Amino acid sequence: MTTPLQQALDVADLPVDEPARRRALADARVAPWPERRLEAWRYTSLHALGQRAPRPAAPPAAEPAPPRSVVFRDGHRTGAGLDGLAAGVRLTTGVAAPATAQGDVFDHLSAAFAVDGATLRVDAGTDAGDWLALLHRSGVGADRSWHLRHRIVLGSGARARVLLDCEGARGPALATVDTAIELAAGAELDLACVNAPAEALSLLLRNRVRLAAGARLRLQALDGGAAPSRHELTIDLAGAGASAQLGGAFVLAGRRHADLQLRLRHLAPGCTSTTAWRALADERARAVFDGHILVAAGADGTDARLECKSLLGSAQAEVDAKPVLEIHADDVRCAHGATVGQLDPAALFYLRSRGIPADAARAILVRAFAAEALAGFAGDWPLPARLAALAGLEEAV
Amino acid sequence: MLTIDDLHVSVAGKAILKGLDLVVQPGEVHAIMGPNGAGKSTLAAVLAGREGYEVTAGSVRFHDADLLALAPEERAAAGVFLAFQYPVEIPGVNNTYFLRAAYNAQRKARGEPELDSVQFLRRVREKLKILSLPEDLLHRGVNSGFSGGEKKRNEIFQMAVLEPALAVLDETDSGLDIDALRQVAEGVNSLRSAQRGFVLITHYQRLLDYVVPDFVHVLADGRIVESGGPGLAGELEAHGYAWVADRKVGGAA
Ligand SMILES: Nc1ncnc2c1ncn2[C@@H]1O[C@H](COP(=O)(O)OP(=O)(O)OP(=O)(O)O)[C@@H](O)[C@H]1O
Ligand SMILES: [Mg+2]
Is the ipTM of this complex over 0.90? Predict the structure, then answer.
């Protein structure tokens, strides 16, 4: 079954009339729409999105960008502050339509319509230094769609810290942000993702990371949910001794919906991964944590840990946490678990008895709970401060 | 400042306080003693506004307000402080952050200016000196991993920073070593003033050797059954609570 969204797709809306984009558009029109009977979409409905007909956003005017950042508004680069990058660090923008479009309806849409994205290349042995930010923004108003495709390529032993920030994205819109990441041997990437956009946005963040031997990925993600905000995180530990440290939190209220789809594959011996997620769902919000770790045959000596702890703030809120380990190798150390609880009423009363109003007391406890997932990361990260704001605290301290 | 009149309280449908009367004037220290399960912590919890306690009759007035009508945070802002018998561990919430949030929330509620972190830290340092609390406790999570004695001292430290008008201490002396007991007592004595009232719930004469109360009450089976001067604590220590009951029976005969 195709949807009104697909039926409304129009060749006249293509940014450039070229065969690859026409093909991708045709594929998008007929691709199966994600239905809830598919396991990966079981808890996240795109029915409402399918009834809409978002039109591609026009290129907006240029705007200033903070230092060490690129601003993308409605899927177009509108500003960049890239003076003074170290030698061996190149950040360029723009994308071509891929020669072949594979994947699902959103991959086809991206292939057909994406005109922009950042490509960060860091040469072997180079340290790109402090955080580089990709800031995603959009205007409010008519139903828009926009698509971006980023690439991050680190040479062997290279280091970079990248912030993917979707906090400035507004709705109603359909937005997809695809990031393909390749880490050569011994490369290190710190990746921070903030999705706290407007409630009316349908955001699909697809991060695909491939790590060579000894490479290291540290990733923090903070999600305030949207309609929905879905993060598909695919990580291949493809070289011996590669490692991934992942920590994230959902802090959801209203009718917001956040969904993490983690596909983490241990494909080589001696790799380690830790994944810690915290989900807080209040009011009628819904959080989905689908964490799947595969330890492939031959990935001996794997150490994999996967946990998701949740707090429900109301009887209407819902968390679906499904941590799964699939092990085909020997000599592995693996642990996984999920818990669901509620804010500790004794702690709440203790804070209130000292004069802290109920809402602030709740925010303090929410922040503390979510912060557990962001603890134990080396270096300074921008997310803890964002978390304080998302939890509703006036001061970050 | 505090007037408790014929207070009846039930927990989970079971009557715990059964007609309790108590009046505390500014400047007074009242000790409340009584057997386990008599309702002492229930009284403390009702004064602080904990959920799950049903007041079935009676009233509690604090200054000019109906205390029972206020939310817990409003009671705190009005000047009521409870040192918990079992302080709650809140990992991940920094002790200093928590205390400043509490202090400023109270000031805000009273329409007073809030303190910035430098001003607040100065205040905290002064209070630390009085209590000789190790400074590293300030940087840890609230009561998180604290020893029993450290938790109790942290309660007194909070009281010293918040400077309440009425402090209710629920067995703050239980489980303390002799040095810690002395420090807690010093903490209380340093706050004693003509404007401030204290209710000390305790099982032991020991604390009352350091903090000499103006009144001692015996709470048994949900009521104050005996009141006296500081000497009453010694009598209780010597004879036990059965003695009070016997005297009541004797007096009635
Ligand atoms: N949630 C509850 N459900 C049922 N009974 C309760 C509950 N909470 C307290 N009680 C009962 O209320 C009575 C009074 O308890 P309270 O804690 O006030 O006693 P206490 O005088 O402080 O005792 P202690 O000296 O041991 O601290 C006890 O019998 C206790 O078991
Ligand atoms: Mg008690």
Answer: yes
